[in-house]
Design goal:
The complex is a heterodimer of chains A (about 325) and B (about 200).
Chain A lengths: L1 H4 L5 H13 L1 H16 L7 H11 L4 H12 L4 E4 L1 H11 L10 E6 L5 E4 L5 E4 L3 E6 L7 E12 L8 E4 L4 E5 L3 E6 L5 E8 L2 E5 L4 E5 L3 E6 L4 E6 L2 H5 L5 E8 H12 L1 E5 L8 E7 L4 H12 L3 E4 L6 E5 L1
Parallel strand pairs in A: 6-7, 16-19
Antiparallel strand pairs in A: 1-2, 2-5, 3-4, 4-6, 5-6, 6-9, 7-8, 8-11, 9-10, 10-13, 11-12, 13-14, 15-17, 18-19
Helix pairs in contact in A: 2-3
Chain B lengths: L4 H13 L3 H20 L5 H17 L7 H22 L9 H17 L5 H15 L3 H11 L5 H8 L3 H20 L4 H11 L1
The chains are: A alpha+beta (about 325), B mainly alpha (about 200).
Chain lengths: ~325, ~200
């Protein structure tokens, strides 16, 4: 009997037990009392912290979570595409294995000019920067913490010593952590991948699973795709992570480069009336989500760049810098 | 000021009734695995057991106005788990564990019968539940650790020895002590067969 309750009994033993139960009402009653006691004293070994977080996500049982959901909805630009549809239809047709439904994948895409924050099923918070995509499989929460990133993201990984959190990038390297926060820039078209560790520890791996380097907090690893090498340096992590607060920090960046970025963020065209200015270097932090005239005002105050705005119908606004 | 267990429970309960999420979180964390463990005994898929349990807690929170005393929380959770497990058994097609279909059918019937026999609003249940928890928490520390690892975490003596940094002999000695203590505490209340069952498995 206790082998059955502990799920250790063989099929033959179970059969014998069930036959014994049917022999008399007394036996049946005994079995029921045993099973009752067993059920009441059972306990599973799930991590209550993880379950609590998933409950918070699953149901908006409190005002707090409702507000959160609303603010997420406000970033209406976040498009969630379920790739699974095709696979799922295939599953319905074939209906051979009940497991194939778990191949579904979630994609979160943030268009240029937007930012987004998402919470993954394990409680990990991810800030996604403009023009980024994040992918994860439907079986993500069952111990497999694996995501794929194209673009820039700041991860605040929920601590779980048993299950590493792995980020695949388009540059053939992966990052493995347990509970930590770090930033990654991994845009597919760029020739390098930067990862900056704020706290915890972080391993950089190649495709074959070999550890290339192990970062300590405050370090940045720059992976250069064409040379297949990694350069480690000590950095001010704020420079790499401030974007998630809507701050953009420039360090010795040419005005020409900055103009390109502003053009992308605000859908404007910038014309240098004095072309020598293009090579001038700028240092400073701006708030990205402010109106364009306020941004231009900041440049005026910090580096005496004069500006003129020309609004045009059906065409991007023109800005003259001198 | 130190609070004894009872006044701490009352305090938590009144915070919970007033919609304090922290109190709810505390209740959730202390009871969640017990409810899953309960569902696991009747439903073979652990994820389904987890889902039912989550639903139970969500409903507990939504119905907190209707719960009148601290022991009502347990009654509510177990009653919810019971009726949802029953629905599940009756209406969901589940993967069969055995090669013999008749065995599977029989098990489902027995599970339903056991579930139906529970009355979670009875005084007997409330006292039994409290007694089991109390008996476990009253064990000497090492005993309790060994007992929980063996019974609730399903570990082997060797693993327990490694976890606690003691040798196997003292794991066994602590199990014997735990069994004796439980036998004494529980037998004052539980039918001898139940004590026998719990104790038998531990050996």
């Amino acid at each position: 009997m206790y082998r059955y309750l502990a799920q250790e009994a063989s099929e033959a033993e179970i059969k014998a037990l069930f036959e014994w139960i049917d022999e008399s009402a007394e036996n049946r009653k005994t079995f029921i009392r045993y099973k009752q006691a067993w059920a009441l004293t059972s306990s599973s070994q799930d991590d209550s912290e993880v379950l609590w977080k998933s409950l918070n996500k699953k149901d908006s049982f409190s005002k707090k979570t409702r507000i959160l959901t609303l603010s997420v909805q406000k970033y209406a630009a976040v498009a969630i595409v379920i790739f699974a549809l095709g696979l799922f239809v295939e599953y319905l047709i074939q209906k051979e294995s009940s497991d194939s439904v778990y191949f579904s994948q979630t994609e979160i895409e943030v268009p240029p000019g937007q930012m987004s924050k998402v919470t993954l099923p394990d409680g990990t918070a991810v800030h996604l920067n403009s023009g980024s995509k994040l992918f994860y499989n439907a079986d993500f929460s069952s111990g497999k913490r694996l995501v794929k990133l194209e673009g820039e993201a700041f991860f605040d990984v929920y601590s779980d010593k048993k299950h590493p959190f792995i980020v695949h990038t388009p540059g053939d390297i992966s990052l493995k952590v347990y509970g930590t926060s770090f930033n990654i820039q991994a845009y597919p078209k760029e020739g390098e991948i930067n990862t900056t560790l704020v706290e915890g520890s972080l391993g950089v791996f190649d495709q074959a699973g070999n550890e290339l380097s192990l970062l300590i907090p405050g370090q940045n690893a720059q992976y250069i795709k064409s040379e297949n090498k990694i350069v480690l340096s000590d950095v001010n992590t704020g420079l790499f992570t401030s974007w998630k607060e809507g701050l953009v920090t420039f360090r010795d960046e040419s005005l020409q480069n900055i103009a390109l970025k502003i053009e992308r963020w605000y859908n404007v065209e910038i014309i240098f009336e004095n072309t020598e200015l293009k090579e001038d270097l700028y240092n400073g932090t701006i708030l990205k989500n402010k109106p364009i005239d306020q941004i231009l005002e900041v440049f005026k105050l910090t580096s005496s760049l004069e500006y003129r705005i020309e609004y045009r119908t059906d065409q991007p606004t023109l800005i003259y810098w001198k | 000021m130190t609070l004894d267990n009872n006044s701490l429970n009352d305090f938590l309960f009144s915070r919970f009734k007033n919609g304090d999420e922290l109190a709810f979180e505390h209740i959730f964390k202390s009871k969640f695995n017990q409810i899953i463990g309960f569902c696991d005994q009747f439903i073979s898929d652990h994820d389904d057991a987890k889902n039912i349990t989550q639903e139970a807690f969500i409903n507990l929170w939504l119905n907190r106005n209707k719960i009148e005393k601290p022991s009502g929380i347990n009654s509510f959770l177990y009653t919810f788990a019971k009726s949802n497990c029953l629905n599940f058994i009756r209406h969901q097609a589940v993967e069969e564990k055995y090669t013999d279909h008749a065995l599977h059918e029989k098990e489902q019937l027995l599970n339903a019968e056991v579930l139906e026999s529970f009355d979670f609003n009875s005084l007997e249940f409330i006292e039994l539940e409290e007694l089991i928890q109390k008996s476990i928490s009253n064990l000497p520390e090492k005993c309790r650790e060994v007992f929980i690892k063996k019974r609730f975490e399903g570990k082997m003596n060797k693993e327990i020895a490694e976890d606690l940094g003691i040798n196997i002999k003292s794991v066994e000695a602590n199990m014997t002590r735990a069994i004796k203590a439980l036998k004494k505490n529980l037998s004052e209340y539980l039918p001898a067969i139940l004590v026998q069952l719990i104790v038998q498995y531990l050996n």
